[in-house]
Amino acid sequence: MAFDLSPALEADIPQLAQLWQSSFRSYDIWTAAMRHVSSEDELAFYHKALARRLKLPNTFTTKITERETNKIVAWSTMSAPETKTTEEENAPKPPSILPEKIDMGIWAIQGRCFEVMKSSGYDATKDFFRSGLIVDPAYQKLGLGRRLAIFDCEIADKAGARTWVIASANSRKLFVSVGFVEVGCESVVLEEGEEGKERVGRNWVTVREPKGKGEKING
């Protein structure tokens, strides 16, 4: 099988959204937060989120397409450092696009992880931030996630900047293998069990220092 890597376009949103939905079925925190949300509303959320991302001037989304079928089988998103004007800083925030029935108690871990990231030194004017790495479940174990991770790392290395990512249990091993270091961990109860036993989900806040010219990325 041959695969091509290229920038994602607005016309790709339907494929990107469907891939997001199918790949996150194995993400424990996400599925718990979305358990009361209909499949249709969940997919609509992905469409809206992607439409926003693709319009952001400092954010780029990269896709991997299977050459034979022209099917998008993986994608990633990363935001570059950005200095906002005073007007931009004071502008009202866009309305929430989260589904109405999302479990906000579970979803709140996202905000807590971001606070850990900021307290650990994240600076949006100097650092890159990865906000997604998605691989089609049928195309996993082919090195596509690693290919995207290394591609984005090389962009940050060229800029001489750090990169931050909030890693899930599914992606933690991959990010550590390409040089990310854990600086914090947040947990959330996903389900109350019998006899006081709880099902707990965890996310890890990680950062990667840029490599110098000629230094090889692990893996």
Automatic annotation (TrEMBL):
N-acetyltransferase domain sequence ranges: 59-206
InterPro entries reported for this sequence: Acyl_CoA_acyltransferase (IPR016181), GNAT_dom (IPR000182), Trichothecene_AcTrans (IPR052523)
Annotated SUPFAM superfamilies: Acyl-CoA N-acyltransferases (Nat)
GO molecular function: acyltransferase activity, transferring groups other than amino-acyl groups
Name by which UniProt lists this protein: N-acetyltransferase domain-containing protein
Gene source species: Hyaloscypha hepaticicola
